[in-house]
Amino acid sequence: MKTHWLGYALVTTLLWGVWGAFAGRPVQNGFPETLVYAVWALTMIPPALFALARIDWRVRRDGPAIAHGLAIGLLGAGGQMILFHAVKEGPTYLIFPLISLSPVITIALSYAFLRERTGAMGVTGIVLALCALPLFDYAPEQGGVAYGWWFVLALGVLVAWGLQAYFIKRANAIMDAESIFFYMTVSALAFIPVALAMTDFSQPINYGLDGPWLAAITQVLNAVGALTLVYAFRHGKALVVSPLVNAGAPLLTTIVSVAMAATLPNGFKLAGIGLSLAAALFLALQPDEPSAA
């Protein structure tokens, strides 16, 4: 039913939109991004316990379930590790608009292998969302940019996160959403030692309330949003859910950030806001259609 997937998708958009507006604060306050990752992985535990309680702690442990679950978790966490390297090598104003196009991978795979289809309004919404995504983080600077290793890393993140969303949808056909999230949590926790190894502990680190504790508060929104996203994929089509959430969350982040700063966004962000609003309207109003046989 549309009310199911759309409700979960909107909750994810709300949670990730607010999270995005505050996610950078701990880093600005001197708490490294790698440690923020470790905090995020730990915040995955409470929603995972909630999900497991819903299925009486019966996690799917057959081969296909484990393979899909770990693929989803490793693609998500591994993509984050690659992103840490990418932002050290290249310009973030180009990296983030590039990886924001990961729904292109999800849409293409869902169309080709899951035979998902949508109507004219849905197609229009998808196109508008994909056009809007790069605009929220795009901030051109003067001078040329050398395309090197950072570009390859950014493409790796794009592919990893696009594949992750596709596999979430695919896994929902063979296992329950709660088991999927359990494996996502296990994978996220498994990468904590990697994040710690990448942390430069020789530099001053803020361990105060506006460091790890602020990170924990904001990352809870991220973790719960990940759970509701799994439910959205369970009830809705990946080629619709993915662009809706990925365009809607930055839209809300921009609105919240602009409201707090009391300043107008630049022209690129304004264009992204307009396109995202139109995309969300088309995607929400498109009647559900069965997938192709």
Task: Please provide a written account of the structure.
Helix 1 runs parallel beside helix 13, helix 5 packs antiparallel against helix 9 (149-171) and helix 7 (103-113) packs across helix 9 (149-171). The chain has 293 residues and is mostly helical. The chain contains 14 helices and no strands. It has one domain (3-285).
Low-confidence stretches: none
Helix content estimate: over 70%
Count up the domains.
1
Q: What portion of the residues fall into strands of 2 or more residues?
A: under 5%
Counting DSSP E segments of at least 2 residues, the number of strands comes to 0
Describe the global form: globular
Helix-strand sequence = HHHHHHHHHHHHHH
Instruction: Give the C-alpha Rg.
Output: 19 Å
Quick structural overview:
By secondary structure, this protein is mostly helical. The chain is built from 14 helices and no strands. It has one domain.
